[in-house]
Amino acid sequence: MEQRILGFDPGLAILGFGAILCQTADTIARATGDAAKPTVKSTPESVQLLDFGVIQTPAGTEIGLRLCTIYEDLHTLINRWQPDLVAIEKLFFYRMSSTITVAQARGVLMLVLAQHDVPMVEFTPAQIKQALTGYGNADKYEVQQAVARELNLECIPKPDDAADALAVALTAWFYQS
After folding, report:
1. Which domain holds residue 138?
2. What span, in angstroms and rounded, lies between the C-alpha atoms of 96 and 98?
3. Per-residue pLDDT reduced to its tens digit, 77-108
């Protein structure tokens, strides 16, 4: 079974995205205690990088126009990759001024997903770190190294926002398996 997962690292100035193609093998497993009820379980087999990058909006531009750019570019990405699932990093509160603008960009992202009827999951930074490194307090470089390793890349994807988005997409794949 193939599944396209699109991951996002929301931001107003830079919104990272990463698309992966996951292949799983469906196996029949019997539930313990009742051998008459088989269940289908997906086990991870492989993951392939499809695309990654960022949506950028210029700092001096009026916020409404920046959100429009994000809106239009997100529609293009959703139409291009036709994801089965979208994964988003949950909002992390660190500076109030940037938190508000990130929340506005996330709102546009959620609107576009609803318009395309694409299912969505969210993960905290700690969940992403745990899924990729086995340690919820891993540093950014460790997570980026894990992304490169999981996707069989020779180097860490750049910019960081795109690598972060790929980490979110991989986390969705790991959590489904």
Report:
1. 2-26+41-176
2. 6
3. 999 999 999 999 998 665 556 788 889 999 99
Which CATH number covers residue 53? 3.30.420.10
How many structural domains compose the chain? 1
Tell me whether residue 62 is one of the annotated catalytic residues. Answer: no
Q: What is the end-to-end Cα distance of the chain in Å, rounded?
A: 12
Q: What is the pLDDT of residues 105-128, one digit of tens each?
A: 999 999 999 999 999 999 999 999
84 part of the active site: no
Closest CA relative to residue 69, chosen from 9, 7, 12, 10: 12
The answer to whether position 33 is within a domain reads no
The tokens of 131 are what?
A: 């899924």
From the candidates 62, 72, 122, 161, give the one annotated as an active-site residue: 161
